[in-house]
Design a protein that fits this description.
The chain has seven helices and 18 strands. It has about 350 residues and is an alpha+beta fold. Strands 1, 2, 3, 4, 5, 6, 7, 8 and 18 form a nine-stranded mixed sheet that branches. Strands 9, 10, 11, 12, 13, 14, 15, 16 and 17 form a nine-stranded mixed sheet that branches. The longest helix is centred in the middle third of the chain and has 16 residues. The structure holds 2-OXO-4-methylpentanoic acid. The site of 2-OXO-4-methylpentanoic acid has 5 residues, from loops.
């Protein structure tokens, strides 16, 4: 791979972050950008000042949605260091999405090195607050100007950085989620296991119903039988029954979450019986009535560990832990964010330190 070229933003004053960050509203000074064409493959890697994109109105992404993305975070540690959580997993998953959408794969090691360099350059943008971090959005899209339906010839890969706090408006309080059966989001053998824009576009009408019913998110059912619980729009779902912690298995219709996988590992190490399986909605409702549903929580990079205080279905609210954050979700949140922020020992080797570049050496 060629060396990265630099055309950095010339910052005169120190970065001052707003008191309340929310999610995805602010962006750092610079981005990483790289181009693809069939002759040169991936080429022209640059770290450059953030600016608008120039695209032909016929660019394939604008018409046929050939675009994929990832989400990961950089953290500031008590030792004054900066670190990433399992970045190679994100670039491997980006490659899985790329294969499904006929897009070019990236070199995972190069991308991790380039990302470390970008975060190092923009390290002043990594927030220091307890529940804050720098969200990283790698994304790729087809930019060939061509109205025929076919894979684009040319692509761009960009890494965008955004200092963030809590994803949901509730902050880190428990959220309420809606089960609705008017719309479905993804289907097995479709794009459900890819991180691609269409899945999120498909979720918005259901999301609007949730908002009208006073809920923050939709808990989607499987698209074929509307019988099994699958995934919340922005996170994977876990249910703590009295005898096991269950999460929907990777059916092809849901996202293989990195926080999901990490949470299962931690829970198993804590001695929980973790089961990945089909979870019928009926089982959850029946066992709720018997008092056998102890907790529900979601896992995701943006959402971290989000406790569910109530599930709304068929006009009824099924309340958990009096609508408060559940003890298992809280323990898992503390453990995971402890590892991510360098406050708990990284006993799994999940952490990558951010240092200035090895990639151009
Ligand atoms: C993430 O957790 O990184 C996500 O991609 C969820 C969302 C903000 C789309």
């Amino acid at each position: 791979m060629e060396n990265i070229k630099y055309n950095l933003y010339e910052r005169k004053d120190p970065v001052v972050l707003p008191e309340t960050l929310g999610f995805g509203r602010y962006f750092s000074d610079n981005v990483f950008v790289m181009d693809y064409n069939p002759q040169k493959g991936w080429h022209n890697p640059q770290i450059t000042a953030l600016g608008n994109l120039h695209m032909h109105p016929a660019a394939s992404v604008l018409h046929y949605g050939q675009t994929i993305f990832e989400g990961l975070k950089a953290y500031y540690t008590p030792d004054g260091e900066y670190q990433l959580f399992r970045p190679e997993e994100n670039f491997k998953r980006l490659n899985n999405s790329a294969r499904r959408l006929c897009m070019p794969e990236v070199d995972v090691d190069f991308c991790v090195e380039a990302l470390k360099e970008l975060v190092w350059i923009d390290r002043e943008w990594v927030p220091r607050g307890d529940k804050e971090s720098l969200y990283i959005r790698p994304f790729m899209f087809g930019e060939e100007a061509m109205l025929g339906v076919k894979p684009s010839d040319t692509y761009k890969l960009i890494f965008l950085l955004s200092p963030v706090g809590a994803y949901y408006p509730e902050g880190f309080q428990a959220i309420k989620i809606l089960i609705q059966d008017e719309y479905v989001r993804t289907v097995r053998k479709g794009l459900g296991e890819c991180k691609t824009a269409g899945n999120y576009a498909a979720s918005m009408a259901g999301q609007e119903i949730a908002r009208r019913e006073g809920c923050t998110q939709v808990l989607w059912l499987d698209a074929v039988e509307l019988k099994y619980i699958e995934e919340v729009g922005t996170m994977n779902i876990f249910i703590q029954f009295n005898d096991q912690v269950a999460t929907p298995m990777l059916s092809g219709g849901i996202l293989p979450g990195i926080t999901r996988k990490s949470s299962m590992r931690i829970l198993r190490d804590w001695g929980y019986n973790v089961s990945e399986r089909q979870i019928p909605l009926k089982e959850v409702l029946d066992r709720y009535e018997k008092g056998e549903v102890l907790e529900i929580f979601g896992t995701g990079t943006a959402a971290i560990i989000s406790s569910v205080g109530a599930v709304r279905y068929g006009g009824h609210d099924f309340v958990l832990n009096n609508g408060n954050v559940g003890p298992l979700a809280e323990r898992l949140f503390n453990e995971l964010t402890g590892i991510q922020k360098g406050k708990v020992e990284d006993r799994y080797g999940w952490i990558t330190k951010v240092e200035p570049l090895a990639v151009n050496a």
